[in-house]
Amino acid sequence: MKLDFKWFLVPAMVVAISHQGYGGFPAAAEEQLMHIEEKTVESTDPSIEVNFDQTYNDGTNQYQLSKVETQVIDSWPAAEAAKKEQSLEPFFDADLALAKEHLPAREIEEDGITYYLASSEIVSEVVEARTEYGKAEIRYDGLEYTDELPESEQVTVSDSLTGKEYSKELPRSRYQVVDERWTAGFSFDVKIYNYDADSYLLGTLEIPKGSDLTQYGQTFLSHLGLDPNYYRIDNIVLSGEPYEVDGELIQNAIASGTKRTVDVIAVYEGAINLPSAERYYYKCTYSSIPAGEEIATIYKIKATASYEQVIEAAHEVKPMSLWDQLIRFITTPVTLAVLLVLLFFIVFLMLIKRKKKKEESSMTYIKSDKKTE
């Protein structure tokens, strides 16, 4: 049987043509581009709608907003409640009823922050006996040379834990003169005995009758044991009329002058024993958030917007001529592949056919005319 190789070509071409489609050859659909925009916002509403522009242009392509997706990626309270512990003072020593009358403040303010009472309780505790240091500075004004500072004074301390006061006689530790001056008001009485005599005796000093006694001021001070550095006699005058006592004539006189005075601050200090005592007090907790007020939650939201490229409508494809279709068909990759396969197949068949012809030409046929008897 003789093979006709053209029939192998026809089915292959039909397959290739059917693969390309009937009629014209439309262009491949353009791949649609996407653009992504992201925003991060904070809001107390986790379902907040995040706004994006409806269109986007990258300078070459135009995009239309397709969808917006949101996701909560973090959250935290809008305000942190600041806590403050406080003990209400003063404390009430062994008096629970008094403590209950002194209720703690509902609100307090510190460093510009308002704190609200969150809880309170009355706490009782025993304060152990201990020692408190006491000190007092006492001022003494107008002291004379002969005045004596007290060696001790009562000093009072307040117990910081119970609020009670305790006193004790404490010794003087030191003193300081803070002011010094001459002041009026120095005076004393003088009695002149034997006033009718020709002279008077002041100690061992004889004073003639009728003499001005003021000129003997220093002698009077010495007789009284007063230091002239601190006392001065400015005047001595007779007072009243002479009078007789037991047959002796007496005349009164008054001496007056100035004295040197000082202002002194004395310090008294030492240890004061405080006894054991029980106390009651309020222990309070304050918060910057009022009771019952809910703290809002802030949500961190990530929003992702997807944009699709705006593709213009495809231009109308004009019908192609048969020759153009044939040229396009032959130049398509699929057709070229099919033709290449057919070419190899035809070459293969031709090689087989040539081999057979060589084998047939080398065979010898013997024809016998002899008849069989």
Q: Your description of this structure?
A:
By secondary structure, the protein is α+β, with helices and mostly antiparallel strands. Among the domains are: 1-25 and 320-357, no CATH class; 36-76 and 296-314, no CATH class; 83-128 and 279-287, no CATH class; 182-258, no CATH class. 18% of the residues lie in helices and 48% in strands. It is built from 5 helices and 16 strands. It has helices at residues 6-20, 96-101, 217-224, 322-331, 333-361, and strands at residues 34-43, 55-57, 62-77, 83-87, 92-93, 107-110, 113-127, 130-143, 152-158, 165-193, 199-202, 205-208, 231-245, 248-274, 277-287, 297-309. Strands 4, 5, 6, 7 and 15 form a 5-stranded antiparallel beta sheet that branches. Strands 8, 9, 10, 13 and 14 form a 5-stranded antiparallel beta sheet that branches. The longest helix has 29 residues, at 333-361. It is rod-shaped. The protein starts with 5 loop residues before the first helix and ends in a 12-residue tail after the last helix. 7% of the residues are buried.
